[in-house]
Amino acid sequence: MLYGKVHRHFLRSMIGRGVINLQEAASILDSLNEEQLPSLEDLVKQINDELRPFQQAIKITNDELTNEEVIVFLSLGYDDATKSQSVFSANELEYFRLLIEQIMTAEARQITGINAMNLVGIMKASFTKTDAQKLLNTWCRMRYLDKDHNNYALGVRAIHEFESYLRQNMPDTIEECCLCKQIVFRGCNCPSCALAIHTRCLNKYLEKVDKWPCCKADFHASQLERLHNGERLSQTQRLENSNESEENTEVDQTQESTEDIQTTQDIIPEISQRVTRKRKRT
Predict the structure, then answer these.
(1) How far apart are CA 55 and CA 68, in angstroms?
(2) N or C: which terminus of the chain has fewer CB atoms within 10 Å of its end residue's CB?
(3) pTM of this structure
(4) Are the CB atoms for 187 and 197 separated by under 8 Å?
(5) Which domains are seen in the chain, by residue range?
(6) Where are the compositionally biased (Polar residues) regions (predicted)?
(7) Is 106 helix (H, G, I), strand (E, B) or coil?
(8) pLDDT tens string 16-66
């Protein structure tokens, strides 16, 4: 089937929604009342052939939060055209960068709502908790974030759109699953050997044997609860340390003046087109 009305209609729906499940995809196609329709896989492939020059794509993948197959619209560009499409302000992008770093350095790959709000306190520019809450709601709606109870984790859209950004700019925060060797966005670290594992990979492995797959230590469900509780404590401690560090920096201006800082431009696709990050020269 040649690229035409069906493909354009489906693509417009994907751009508008960002993420849809397979049932929603079927409803979109059925609404066209076409006698002959390509398979979903062929439809995605043909659309991606057209999107490739624009550094965009749609992808059929698994949503780790709902454990269902979904289709995601992704913006993967790093060029000047992409950077010019600034949807959010510099302060908002800085807040999102802080969120990513906190989530990716958390053992459970998620942070509490309180910790997400308190990140406002370590931002350089004026930014309120009201501003932060509005953005958290927006990013959850766009599926860049997922809210599970009162915890925030990277959503399915961010997981697939930000992978190359994280590998390039935050390599120290990345851990790969000991089973599938992909980056762990939703998972935990084994309490015995500290290796990372996806939640979905762990659950599938536990269907066969009640042991941690990385070191074969006995698995107990209570271990996961202790990991989450311990992570909530460590997040609070890290934030307190960060706030204390910020206060000390403001007081001791002479120490700040001795640091040699290089400013670089890092591009985050779609949601944050340009983020300025400070790195010390080595």
Answers:
(1) 26
(2) C
(3) 0.68
(4) yes
(5) 5-77 (3.90.1150.220), 86-239 (1.10.10.10)
(6) 251-266
(7) coil
(8) 899 999 999 999 999 988 888 889 999 999 999 999 998 899 999 988 778
